[in-house]
Amino acid sequence: MTSTAPGTPPTLSIHHLKIPTGSLSTKLEFYTTILPFTHLAHFDHRHADSGDLFAVIIQHAPTALLIELRLNPAQAAAQRGWDSITWGVETRQDLETWREWLVSKGVECSTVLKGFRGWSLVAEDPDGAFVKWYCKESHEWDVHVDVDEKWVQF
Fold this sequence. Notes:
Elements lengths: L15 E6 L2 H10 L3 E3 L5 E2 L6 E8 L5 E6 L1 H6 L7 E4 L2 H13 L8 E2 L4 E6 L5 E6 L19
Parallel strand pairs: 1-5, 6-9
Antiparallel strand pairs: 2-4, 3-4, 4-5, 7-8, 8-9
């Protein structure tokens, strides 16, 4: 893959994303029991001197994307209510299916929300950060979107 900016070195792909957390165990449980991630324990990050765990690596099963959950309570608190990643699904019905799953697991989430071009769903993770899904199925561009004080912020 080549860069579009002349003279810049190439970048092959995203290696991994990093998400802060106030509790590694709680966030890890959320991502591996509610969302389709696998903990890659052999990549656990520990301090060399103390052996204390400070990060874990998880892999998104459908895409093989790696995410580092990094212990950083201050940064996790600062990102409450922020959706740093939006996952893609095919249809609005897929969003409804995700919503049913989340509700059955006791996860607080929005209804399926109408956006400018399609629909989305937002859930809250254990740190209060938002996990969002958006579907490829679309409708005509419409500025009359669903507004929700908690889940949709402009």
